[in-house]
Amino acid sequence: MVSKKVRSVVRQKKHRRLRNRISGTSNCPRLAVFRSNNHMYAQIIDDTVGNTLVSASTLEKEVKADLEKTNNVDAAAKLGTVIGKKATDKGIKDVVFDRGGFIYHGKIKALADAAREAGLNF
Asked: What is the pTM assigned to this prediction?
């Protein structure tokens, strides 16, 4: 009998395959996205030294104050604009997008589009 694989295990396997192809440098850091059932998190990471340069999440007060819910497409778009503004304030323009094994659809796409509008290039 063939058993169906757990969705989180499949996502983690996709993320490992994705991370074999992309990594962030000091010139072009990695924009890593993670979404849980209740919140979304975004970090800009320099993988050569292992530092997080910029981070934002829907747990932060300034992001959460404008949102009705923290786990929908509107929250993802708001998070994309916040991470984009923080990155441009630090002088980061070009990033590599790490979708974390999630499909590029819905919340992940909304975050990416909002980050592009805020000034990030990827």
From this structure: 0.91
